[in-house]
Amino acid sequence: MPIYLEYASFYDGSGQIRFALLMSQYLAEVLERHPVAGRRALDLACGTGTLALMLADTGWNVTGLDSSDEMLAMARAKAEYAEAPHNATFVQGDMRRLEVGYDRRSAADRDLSAPIGEGPSSLALCPASFDLVTCIYDSLNYLLSEEDLGACFGAAARALAPGGLLFADMNTRYFLEHDWGLCEVAEQPGFVQVSQSYFDPVMACSTMVLTGFCGDDRQGYRRFDETHVERAYESQVVAGLIEAAGLQVEAVYECFTFQPVAERTQRIAWVARKPGARD
């Protein structure tokens, strides 16, 4: 069943936007330790576009990719009020394949100086043209097989220019099994959200059923349901898939810090680089 349909319009207001704001600051600190040469970024599973737009406002040319039309509609609406709207482009696609608008010309045949926001969208996802690929807010945990996770890392590697950086986060098994609340209720004007979660230790998957009620006390409420499933991966498996994709793991942090991963770490930040140096 598709997710982020009716929930998309309530996503930011339900508090999810705070994560992207925190991640923007953390990413800036990560890039001080792990610099890149250029200013072209690809944000996979960009959602409502908060991180992509914040990067654009700081001088990056950004392409945000997501599979959800509804989330992309929110991102494009927010872009109209951004400080640098022409620095951000949003496209629909599959982060495991990056097939939408993929330009297979070599870097030598393309104008890498042209702003991503201009010209045909096919130029936005050309191989080896991004200095930074991001994938945040446990989006990688939604890939439920090693094959799909490895395919996503492979797609990121192809999109990166030599010397480019992959920055991604993932929920740990400890978080999914012990710290993700079994039942939570959140309210905002016109919307009530109830989420119930359970963890399958055999499959290492957490299933969260989100029930939303939108409306008001006068006209009544309409209900919708979404089911979100996340899988936990062992760190050695993730590292192996990253390296198999042709990237080199440069750092593994307890997310939002620069400390090593511990037994009760909730979220891991992965930093990997494509070998070589950009011309």
Structure report:
The chain is an alpha/beta fold. 27% of the residues lie in helices and 32% in strands. It has a seven-stranded mixed beta sheet with strand order 3-2-1-4-5-11-10, sandwiched between helices. It has a four-stranded antiparallel beta sheet with strand order 6-7-8-9. Helix 3 links the parallel strand 2 (61-66) and strand 3.
List the helices and strands and how they pair.
Layout: H1 8-33, E1 40-44, H2 50-57, E2 61-66, H3 69-79, E3 88-92, E4 130-135, H4 146-159, E5 160-171, H5 173-179, E6 183-188, E7 191-200, E8 205-216, E9 220-231, H6 235-244, E10 248-254, E11 267-273
Helix pairs in contact: 1-2, 4-6
Q: What is this entry, summarized?
A:
Helix content is 27%, strand content 32%.
Number of strands: 11
Task: Indicate the proportion of strand residues.
Answer: 25-35%
User: Taking strands numbered 1, 2, ... along the chain, how are they ordered across the largest sheet?
Assistant: 3-2-1-4-5-11-10
The biggest beta sheet, please?
Answer: 7 strands, mixed
**C-alpha-based Rg, rounded:** 19 Å
Average of the residue pLDDT scores: 88
Helix percent band? 25-40%
Silhouette: globular
Terminal CA distance: 44 Å
Order of helices and strands: HEHEHEEHEHEEEEHEE
Helix and strand composition category? alpha/beta
Low-confidence stretches: 100-124
- Count the DSSP helices: 6
